[in-house]
Amino acid sequence: MRCPRCGTHNPEGKIVCRKCGARLRPSRVASSLVTRETEAELARRLRYDLVRVAVTFGVVAVVGVLLGVFVIR
Ligand SMILES: [Zn+2]
After folding, report:
1. pLDDT for res 64
2. Residues 22-61, buried b or exposed e (16+ Cβ, 10 A)?
3. Ligand 1 centroid to 30 CA: how many Å?
4. Which residues are within 5 Å of ligand 1 (an ion), measured at CB?
5. What are the distances in angstroms from CA 73 to CA 35, 64, 66, 70?
6. Who is most buried in 5, 12, 58, 63, counting CB within 10 A?
7. Which residues neighbour 14 within 8 Å (Cβ) at sequence distance 6 or greater?
8. In the prediction, which pLDDT does 7 show?
9. How far apart are the CA of 26 and the centre of ligand 1, in A?
10. Residues 6 or more apart whose Cβ sits within 8 Å of residue 15
């Protein structure tokens, strides 16, 4: 595989040029970047869901305690 920047021939499978360090597979790098962004988005969404579940449980617990107090009175 030839380096797009300096033209040096690199062994097949190499990601960066052995001479100048330029990336030889930009599309693969871009796709892995997209995958990483998607994973970060999923982690963020999962964290948001956990917070929402925790808040929901907290509200239910508070309402339950208040209802219990009113029922006892
Ligand atoms: Zn190069």
Report:
1. 94
2. eebeeeeeeeeeeeeeeeeeeeeeeeeeeeeeeeeeeeee
3. 19
4. 3, 5-6, 8, 17, 19-20, 22
5. 57, 14, 11, 5
6. 5
7. 1, 24
8. 94
9. 13
10. 23, 24, 25, 28, 29
Ligand 1 mean position, distance from CA 11 (Å)? 12
Give the span between the Cα atoms of 32 and 40, in whole angstroms.
12
Cα separation, 68 vs 73, whole angstroms: 9
pLDDT value of residue 37: 72
